[in-house]
Structures are given as structure tokens and as C-alpha cells.
Amino acid sequence: MSATPTTRSVVGGTGPTGQADSSHDLRPQLRLHSVLAFGLAYLAPIIVLGTFGVISDKSHGGTAGSYLIALVAMLLTAASYGRLSREIPMAGSAYTYVRRMVSNHLGFLVGWGSLLDYVFIPMVIWLIGASYLNAAFPAVPDWTWILIFIVSTTTLNILGIKVADKANLVLLAIEILVIALFTVFAVYAVLHHGRSLISLTPFTGTPFNVLALSAGAATAAYSFLGFDAVTTLTEETVDARRTIPKAIMLTALVGGGIFVVSIYFTELVHPLVAVVDIDSAAFEIAKSIGGAFLSAVFLTGLIVGQFASGIAAQASASRLMFAMGRDGVLPKRFFGVVSKRTGTPRNAILVVAVVGLIGCLLDVSTSTSFINFGAFIAFGMVNVAAIALSRKHASEAHGPGRLVGYVLPALGVLVVFYLLTQLDTPALVVGGSWLVIGIGVLTWLTRGFHRPPPEMGDAA
């Protein structure tokens, strides 16, 4: 069934009297540099080191190759996100795009699948940060660090997007400096041991195995989750039709460049270090090549990165829940409103904080895998929505050519769903079960598919 949403202002809604309805609308405040910083903070470039051990193990030492595969998939999908964000400048990301361009019912399921991604990502971010802090301070349990992350990021997000934006800019700058320092030490260590800085091994692994590289790419895609999240800030961005598409591509390109370069040198130095725990492999490498100084700097950078990423991830997840609440898909009175004082979806922010507590029960590898399931479903369907947009433009005698309009998004669909098949079994079981629950909820909302899900604008 095609979606037929009603018209709604994308900058600020109005009530019956024509005045701004502050309980159902977000305020445009952000410009390109802020949105780009938000996207990069969400990516948390230093997370490429945080998950290094897990991906290196899966790819047989071919982490750079895995990241290149993931980057290609993400750039194809980023192009589709950019086109759709220009056409439909509203919060809700993949959920909104698929509802508008493909089907109300599929849009709901994409939104439901995205919840697995967006709502649980902050939990994983806090979990990774806690695992590294626990490695440095084993006497302090993981749950203590998780609680500290949750309380601090939740407070900043409730205070307002501008407060979170300023915090992100400072934290991101620190994070980039730490990555640069780590890379310099890695280069020195490789040269000091008489090894060459030029090698194909970080791209191919040992032995070369396409399935292993693909499995690594399926997990590496977690590091890219953020280029799409900037679309959830559409209604809070000035000149969103131009700003958001630029921010999407720049986030994927800049983030991908940082990932590939830094992970290449980390993989070169990896064989020189005996790693005990793959979940905190980069910390052990930092301690080996730079002693107490680099390990302290690395840990500081990682925690700063996780903190900045947690702010962005929680903000993004709350905007998706707000969009679904405004539609009536989630309870409208609870999720579909924003605080009149701060202009933020406070209730949704608090829900994400509560979900974060689940991180006390999981490990890094399992949590990143099942989150990627929801992301891949959303990415694949966004490419389908981009093809639907091309068909719409073709019928109106305008739009991009066949390459941009059809071939690239079709390749995006194939690559993303191939990566989906490379996820481990627990991730597929959790993700599949989540979708089955979503189908049940959709059946209930539509009274057995006899009516469409709540439309955009119905909750206004």
C-alpha cells in the first residue's frame, strides 16, 4: 500500500490559531558544521580502535579491507539518504522515507527495525566505554561506569540540542587529536621493529578469505552508524534541504577516511603485541607501544569519544521515537511531545537512558551484531525508497539519470543485504524475533491490516 501522508510544516508546525505548537515541533537551530560534528561525534571515530580486536579476529587481520567494504556500502546508501532528505526534510530518517515513498506498512516495520538500531546504540556505546574503563580500573565494576555515562549524557540532552552541540565540538576535537597521536606511535613502533609501512595484509588478512573480510565488514558497519543519524536532526537544521544531504556524505567520507587510515597502521603494529582480551585489544596495543603515557591518553580519548557519541546517539534515538510518537505509532501523549522549556523530546530521552541499563548484561561483540541487524534493514529499505523516488521523478519528467537513480541504490540494496547475511546467528535470531514482534504490533494497530498505520500529521 502506498503511503499518502498529509502535509506538515517541516520547520515548525502550527496549531489551530496559527501559532507555533511547541508541544509537537522541534526548532531549527543547527548549521552544516554543527550537523557534521554531530554525525562525526555519533560515529565516534576513535571507536574504530575500540572495536579493533573484535573485527581483526573476524577478518583474520584484514580490518582495513573490512572497513573498505563497509565504506563502499555506506557511501552507496549515503547517496540515497541524501536524495531522500532533500525531498522529504522531516525527522524520522528511514522510517519516514519508506513510509512516504514505498508503503505505510513497510515504513512502520523499518521504523520498528530502526528502533533496535537507534535505541540500543547508546547502550552499546556506554558498554564499550565501560569495558575499557574496567580494563584500566578492574576494581570498579562495569555497571558503575555505565550509570555515570547514562546520567551525564541524559542530563546534557535534556538541557537542549545547542548544549549538546557545544559539548560535541569540544569532545570531537580531543578525540581526533588522540587518534592522530595513537597513529604516530603505531608508525614509530612499526619502523622501530624494522617493518615496512606498506603492506596489503591489513586489506587482505592472513589467509585471504572473502567471507572473513565480509564478516568483519558486517561488524565494521557499526562504526559508520551516524551518517544516517544526522537526518533525524532535519527539523532542527537551518536550510535542511541543502545542509542535511551535504552533512550525510561528508560524515561518511570523513569518518571512513579516518577509519581506514588509523586501522591500517593499527593492524600493522598488531602482530608485534600479544593481545589477551580482544574486547580491549587497542588499549593493550597502546600500553605496549607507548607505555603508561599513551595508554592513559588513549583511554582518555576513548572515553571522550564514547561520551560524545553517547550524546549524539541518545539525541538521535529520541528524535526517532518522537517522530513515531507524533504519528501515533508509539504512545502519542508520552513520546510525541517536546519540553516547552528546552525544546527537546524529554520523555524519549529518558526511555533511551533506561534501555541503556541492559548494557550491564551484555558483551561488546553480541550487542554490536544485533544492532547492525536493524541498521542493515533500514539501509536496504532506504535504497529501495530512493529507487521509488526515481520512479516518481521519471513520471514527472525530471530527476537523476539511470546510474544515480536506479543502479547505485540497487547496488546499495545488494551490498547491504549481503552484509546482513554475514551477521552471526545470535544477531539474526534477535533481529528476526524483533521483526516478528513488530509484525504483531502492526497487525494490532491496523486491525489485521484492514486499515493503514497512523499517518504523518495525524498526531499533530
From TrEMBL:
Membrane topology summary: Multi-pass membrane protein
Superkingdom of this protein's organism: Bacteria
InterPro entries linked: AA/rel_permease1, APC_superfamily
GO molecular function, one term: transmembrane transporter activity
One cellular component (GO) term of this entry: plasma membrane
Ranges where the record places region Disordered: 1-24
Transmembrane segments: 35-55, 67-84, 105-128, 143-161, 168-190, 210-227, 247-265, 285-312, 348-364, 370-391, 403-421, 427-446
Subcellular localization, as worded in the UniProt entry: Cell membrane
Main location: membrane
Keywords assigned by UniProt, alphabetized: Cell membrane, Membrane, Transmembrane, Transmembrane helix
Alphabetized PANTHER family for the sequence: AMINO ACID TRANSPORTER-RELATED, PUTRESCINE IMPORTER PUUP
Protein's recorded name: Putrescine importer PuuP
